[in-house]
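Lecture notes, unit on protein representations.

Consider one protein chain, 107 amino acids long.
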Amino acid sequence: MTMKSSIIAASLLCVGTFSTPAFAHFPLMSCWFEADKVLCEAGYSDGSTAVEYNVDMFDYDDNLIAKGMTDKRSIVEFTKPDTDFYLVFDAGHENPVEVDVVEIKEK
């Protein structure tokens, strides 16, 4: 391998390593209590909605308590359980979003 081809190979490696996607976005979810309900709005950091996506509710022993799907407003609704819980929005192509019950407030 010549010196010139080594420099080109190293340059391409650096460009591939340090480049970032121009349109990268990540999933978000905000949850709140309304009376005996837990509501969550899912979406993405670029402002796009998450319509018809699954959101799952688990207890602290990782047992599935309930499953829901976001509606046309990107909102999912659950009945508030009598146990501590957390919610998971897994968009499938990024890291899932988890919201713990201690992070949720009345709206």
